[in-house]
Specification:
Among the domains are: 112-310, no CATH class; 313-346. Helix content is 15%, strand content 32%. The protein contains 5 helices and 18 strands. The strands form 4 sheets. Strands 1, 2, 3, 4 and 5 form a 5-stranded antiparallel sheet that branches. Bound molecules: 2-acetamido-2-deoxy-beta-D-glucopyranose (4 copies).
Length: 369
């Protein structure tokens, strides 16, 4: 029955899914009004619960009918119950001669920013500003007080001031160790999701890795994962490579492994399978031999481990030192035996180990040993 219906629809040239036009202008050029956002692409969007959606910026048309499309920084709220848009605030025309744009209380205009949220906090990170500048600033919007705050204001953290500027490299620190100074490199097109602990995840995008770019246009495809803790306002590098432009490493199909690597990419899509796993699909990125390919690879990411290696770094470091110590002592024993063996001079030296051999050479080491 259903297939017959679908066939009829196909003959009548209608689509098999029900679709309703809710609102918005049928015209191609549509400016913003107080109650409706203007035409745009590259928006940042966050769905708070079922009914509330927040939309920030993008590239498109402002409320000025005489202006050509530009980067926007207006904020909109979509009420899912009434299906209506509300302008939370208008954008401001960005004055690039004012370097410290942060001093004003709205993030500067941008598209392709990474937007995510938890509780009543929406976080906007980076994006692409005018003149193709990749951004790395973080802003917090409180949906209750309707106020924007920069990361420093919201969490009173000491940030590396250079990251207020576009085109800055990431400060990765150690895997799984959050600090006030860690910050992902400036980027556009990173993909985000929220885990069961209300940590915001950021993966990839196009921008800066650990290196200071030689010029503002030299960007790389990123493969790094970051977690942002909205309670303390700290970034934690939790996986992927510090280095950009990495090709994918596929390994065995369908098997979760630490040795596979999602290739560097921007503007991928991600959605949650459940609280422990996320799917990641496509994007524009590295296919193994070439950058900037349209990708259709699908990955599954185990996100149940949000603290990197799961072992505090000092503990890991301590174990490392103990093993290094044992290794050095063994080396010394072997070299000691070898050297004394040489000193006999009457036969070819041999590698020897073990208490029996050491006993054999005891007379050479001296009677006190
Ligand atoms: C959303 O719309 C519903 C139905 O019109 C209304 O009752 C509710 O107060 C609105 N919510 C907000 C946050 O404006
Ligand atoms: C701040 O960032 C710059 C450039 O990324 C880096 O050289 C410097 O070490 C950072 N400072 C701190 C305190 O992290
Ligand atoms: C990557 O894409 C290029 C261009 O489409 C193609 O020539 C190349 O074979 C691809 N590499 C792989 C590993 O698929
Ligand atoms: C995901 O990682 C957690 C923690 O290491 C592990 O317990 C779990 O088994 C993993 N999930 C799968 C499907 O392998």
């Amino acid at each position: 029955m259903k297939s017959m219906l679908v066939m009829c629809f196909a003959i009548l040239d209608v689509w098999a899914q029900e679709v309703a036009w809710i609102a918005g202008s049928p015209a191609s050029v549509s400016i913003s009004s107080k109650i409706y956002p203007g035409g745009r692409s590259g928006v940042g969007i966050w769905q708070e619960g079922i009914n509330n959606v927040w939309l920030f910026g993008g590239l498109g048309i402002s409320d000025n009918p005489f202006e050509s499309p530009r980067l926007l920084n207006d904020l909109w709220y979509f009420n899912g119950s009434s299906q209506t848009w509300h302008q939370v605030h208008q954008g401001a025309v960005f004055d690039s001669t004012v370097v410290e744009y942060r001093s004003s209380q709205i993030p500067r205009p941008r598209q392709l920013s990474a937007v995510c949220g938890a509780g009543n906090i929406m976080v906007v990170f980076g994006g692409l500003a005018e003149e193709d500048l990749a951004l790395g600033d973080l802003w917090v919007f409180d949906t209750v007080t309707k106020e924007w705050q920069s990361q420093e204001q919201a969490y009173n953290v000491q940030r590396n001031k250079s990251h207020i500027q576009p085109g800055q490299p990431g400060v990765y620190g150690h895997l799984g160790m959050p600090t006030d100074y860690n910050v992902p490199g400036c980027r556009k097109g990173g993909v985000t999701w929220t885990d069961a602990n209300n940590y915001l995840w950021l993966f990839g995008g196009e921008g800066c890795d650990t290196l200071t770019p030689s010029d503002t246009s030299s960007s790389v495809l990123l493969t790094d994962y970051w977690c942002y803790n909205t309670l303390i306002g700290r970034w934690e590098w939790i996986g992927g490579s510090k280095e950009g432009n990495k090709p994918p490493i596929f390994r065995q199909k369908g098997k979760l492994t630490y040795s596979a690597l999602i290739g560097g990419r921007t503007e991928a899509a991600a959605w949650k399978k459940n609280d422990n796993a996320v799917y990641l699909f496509g994007g524009m990125g590295h296919n193994g031999t070439q950058y900037y390919c349209y990708l259709n690879d699908l990955w599954l990411i185990n996100i149940s481990e949000t603290v990197g290696l799961g072992v505090p770094f000092p503990v890991l470091y301590g174990f490392g030192l103990v093993f290094l110590g044992i290794f050095l002592v063994l080396c010394l024993v072997v070299i000691g035996v070898y050297v004394y063996d040489c000193s006999k001079g009457n036969r070819t030296p041999e590698w020897r180990l073990g208490s029996r051999d050491i006993a054999r050479y005891r007379h050479l080491l001296g009677n006190d040993s």
